[in-house]
Design goal:
The complex is a heterodimer of chains A (408) and B (143). Helix content of chain A is 41%, strand content 16%. Chain A has 408 residues and is an alpha/beta fold. Chain A has a seven-stranded mixed beta sheet, with helices on both faces. Classes of the chains: A alpha/beta (408), B alpha+beta (143).
Chain lengths: 408, 143
Amino acid sequence: MKNKYKEDFGIFDNNTIVYLDSGATTQKPRCVLDAMKMFYEKENANPYRAAYGLSVRATECYNTAREKVAKFIGAKNSCEIIFTKNATEALNLLAYSYGLDNLKKEDEVVISIMEHHSNLVPWQKVTKEKKAKLSYLYINDNYEISENEIENKITAKTKIVSILSVSNVLGTAVNLEKIIKKAHSVGAVVIVDASQSVAHQKLDVSRLDADFLVFSGHKMYGPLGIGVLYGKQDLLEKMSPFIMGGDMIEFVHEQETSFATLPNKFEAGTQNVGGAVGLSSAISYLEKIGFSKIEKVEKELLSYAVKKLSALSFIELYCPKEIEKMASVVSFNIKGVHPHDVASLLDLKGVCLRAGNHCAQPLMRFLDIDSTCRISFGIYNTKEDADALVDALKEIYQKFEKYIKDEK
Amino acid sequence: MNGFDDIYNELIMEHSMNSFNKKSLQSPTGCQLGHNPNCGDEIELQVKIRNGVVEDAAFTGHGCAISQSSTSIMIDTLRGKKVEQAKKIVEIFIKMIKREKISSAEKKLLGDSVAFENIKDMPARVKCALLSWHTMEELLERK
């Protein structure tokens, strides 16, 4: 099967690499690299700072990218889009600026056991400091959060629910509508970590009614070092700034400072305009293909890969039984073989996947495993990639088989 | 599979899956935890040192084939060696894995541990091979 999108990515030129780690970071299409090159060659200057034309143009590039992101996720106003370094920084901003100001003793922050450390460690820090409680939505045997769990854990004490859209380990797609509805019914705000879904499913923050939403540009074909925080305007306006410095101020006196309005209040220091331009181009790329197409291609591939992996008796899968409950990520192990050995040996066959705890140690402990192998797809992947993986896994198992048997 | 046997050779596979050294010692004189937070490998290394000699060592814990076998083969290599000699062997092993030059006399001192020579060609796995050796280094320094 020929994949016409693969040609858009320079990394695959004369390179037979099977890249199955888009959940960690996607490859970058040429249009993104070209847009960034163009910016640095034609429009680069420090934005906001100077009166000369070039600086004005750099500022325009930055804010055009902001408008593009706003439209892409269905935000009402582009001032609701704050550029950050990545999703991690955006989550830290929320934990500190929203969490510290709004949490009181005995309040609860609810997250899920599937969270990436970036949506877990900041909440530990903030809840400890405020003597609040960090509470978890656990998953059932089908690797999903049950409706009961949502009903029981989100209570009148809950002030913040911070939840991923898709698990970066299990591929489970979370029922965001249900969680948001329940959270709002008890007066809590909801933060959505959309890092693992932003490149795969259409986002609409207005329809979803998410209060905040974060993602990284580099997981959606954009460059490294640019991320997004979306927040409802009234909430962002009430929040204190996170990082202090240039551009985020109004008046600075020796002992007092007043702050700029949105979005500048949350963007201290010279910003990553080149990154924003690249992200904007990545959005154009995704929109040109269209999410209906992306979802169709990726779902088919996911379903094919899961089917092929389930047919191998030596493979243990960690995913929901129903493919409709998953998106773009699959975790598995070869029984009796450590994932790092599997990953190193796959590397010898030109197959790149991730092995380890995937920045989700509490989830690993909950599942009572040390680590997994994880594949994650992008628009450039094909069924041949899945076949190459399965063939290599068979070969690896053959090598290990006699030693595994010796152990018994 | 090309490259497989260079790294995952018979000796390494045997030690990783069926190690005689994976157990607890009766009365260890030293004990040290080694942990690799990136991959979650965890070993607890025990030694019994008497009269300046590493009389015995053993380990428990979990990890990949490289870290498990490296630990087990290290124990075989160091068992019965004087502490000063053991320290020297640890130093040579670390040098070898870090692609520094070692002499043929030094290489001889490594015994079976030389089986890990090719790990230097798999940079992502160097930390797995070194985990127990760094842990042993700390144990020996403590005496």
